[in-house]
Amino acid sequence: MEPHTPPPEPPPVHPPLAELATEALLTRDYETRPVLFYERLRARYGPVAPVDVLGVPAWLVLGYPQMLDVLRDPRGLWSKRLDSWRARCEGRVPADWPLLPAFEIDSSVFQDGPGLARLRTAWTAGLKPFQDRSQPQARALEAAIRRYADDLITALAGHGRTGTADLAGQYARPLPLMIVNRLLGFPAARGEELLMDMWRVLDAGPDAAEASARLGAAVAEVCAARFAAPAEDLPSYMIAAVPDLTVDELAREMVMLIGLVGDHTGTLIGSTVAEVVIGDSGVRASLSAGMIAEAVNRAAIASPPMANLTFRWPRADVRLGAYRIAAGDPVMLSPAAAHLDPAFTGGRSPDAIYSSRAHLSWGAGAHACIGRELATVITTIAVERLFERFSALSLALPADQLPWRSSPLMRGLRALPVHYELAPGADVPQTPAPAPVPQTPAEPEPAPSPSLVQRFLRALRRDPQEQSR
User: Fold this and answer.
1) CA nearest 138: which of 434, 362, 380, 431?
2) What CATH number does the domain containing 298 carry?
């Protein structure tokens, strides 16, 4: 007797996405109480919910298994190409939709297939010298990160052994931008101007368009120069790996680097510092490298810098949760929500998760983050230097009053005000100078001096609108 095979479930019947009632994504709860926000959506809709993203309807994937399946894409069903977005092809996406300029940058984030594989080959080879700790470039970069961190700490603590500082605006955010400056090979003489433009672009302020144009031109100039005169920097290594890269292609990837390293890593540093400070009960006295790595992991789970990922579009109709997702519908994956799914937490409180490495903050599948090791090293060193230089750090605000900077994609601390006390003997950094790399760079080393750091911080303090975002 043949085993009985149950009939397949009938496809769900509901109006198309454009006609469904949607939930606003950017709400007060989304910014201040994301756990409640995502859990309310999950209770009402299940693992997938129809949401409004700044006026554009989209599907938000809340479930961990569903998100992992889309990321891994075993059937080759999902596209990241913008021309897969049916509503945009039909002219139904407003030309002034705030996220459209970022989506229209034809970088590897919005590539599929051979085009994506070619660019990721360049990225893998370009980052390898900086991520492989057996390489002199990686060791030199780590020493430079420590020096930059010490320069910033010296600048923010310049008024005495005790005081108050904003570890987000004065430390966590500028530090990765200095590292980007070095990776791109920008001349030191232009460092201050470019760092400020990076900040303006990432904050999407009123002068972001002008700053983006200046930054794009500067990046393109450096990329073009590297084809003629390679140096020991990321663009040069990428060109060596994929010689048929064009200047435009390389410049688009480097602009993306500014956002991913500058914003993503800066946000992760701030979240990790908060994780340690808020949870401190004598832990810092024995804070080891392994414990810092665990704090980074916990912060990535509890507050993933990219709370929601950029859109994907199915090439054919597909069922997700209780809904039929039509071909070309925009789908936004939410690591922040997936990390709250009982399928991930095992029914425990998110606060009880300490060691899971199955989280999705770094993505998975064809678009998994290639720079994960670099971002982790930057964050680990940044946190390590703070707790080596300061004997005491405590929040200057109650934890539930910390201000958050939210967008449809990113979520991080807007400010991290702390009271600090320098450790004995910590006034003068003891960081050794970076080890030399095998060849002499074509450009002067773009390592900012303490005076550059101080000018950078003074410029931020002069512009309260910059600090408030």
Assistant:
1) 434
2) 1.10.630.10
